[in-house]
Amino acid sequence: MRTWNVVAVLAVSTALTAGCSEDPAPAEPTIVLVHGSFSDSSSWDAVAGQLRERGYPVVQVDNPLRGLRSDADAVTAAIADVRGPVVLVGHSYGGAVISNMRRADVSAVVFVAGFAPAEGEAVQQLSDPAKYPGSRLGPALRIRPTETGAEATLAAEQYGEVFAQDVSAEIASKLAARQRSTAAAAQAEPSGEPLWTSVPSWYVLSTEDRALPPASQRFQAERAKAQVREVNSSHAVQVSHPDEVTAVIVAAAD
Length: 254
Description:
The chain has helices at about 1-20, 45-55, 70-80, 95-100, 135-140, 155-165, 170-180, 215-225, 235-240, 240-254, and strands at about 30-35, 60, 85-90, 105-110, 140-145, 150-155, 180-185, 200-205, 225-230. By secondary structure, it is α/β, with parallel strands linked by helices. It has a single domain (about 25-254), classed as 3-Layer(aba) Sandwich (Rossmann fold). The strands form 2 sheets. Strands 2-1-3-4-8-9 form a 6-stranded parallel β-sheet, sandwiched between helices. Strand 3, helix 4 and strand 4 form a beta-alpha-beta unit. About 40% of the residues are buried. Residues about 1-20 have low confidence and may be disordered.
């Protein structure tokens, strides 16, 4: 009888251990980096490297650039297996995407020269040249009609001047070559209730931005009651000033 009792105890113990075999949540929040239009996930490489050196788990998500709701759903699905709290970081249009995400354990949102639309507001309203002059995107845009609408990219020969004037010509050329096209309809889709109304927010404001005018960035940051860090930078601030961007993300994570 004693032998059978020992076997039973071992069986129960094994079953309990198996039921608790999931990896524990990381000690630090996971940093989710979301790129915007005219870019791809590699634009985060320098920042991601610095964050990983500091011990943060990092996910660089491929943003589909199709529309706010569908992109928010895609990013949410991409981090479905992430356990524990997350810090969402969005550059440019990526800021509008993270604003529309719904995940209970988001501890902070960080906008990096990003859009932070209010409910019912479209990204294109926040870059209206009549209200926020200074953008040079218009002449550099290349629109290609498709079966489902239209796709927008930036002309490679104008990419550096408009999007990343403070990086080398070689780096700007690589960024232009890696950019992903954006569905034109994504710029006109109204935002849902923004996450920044219920989650602490930070904002990296690019003061020499030629894509999203600094005046628009400042308006959005103040409206979101974000903690602001101004950086003398182009729109591609995470590429040209990774140290400053990393510092803001770490502050949000802490």
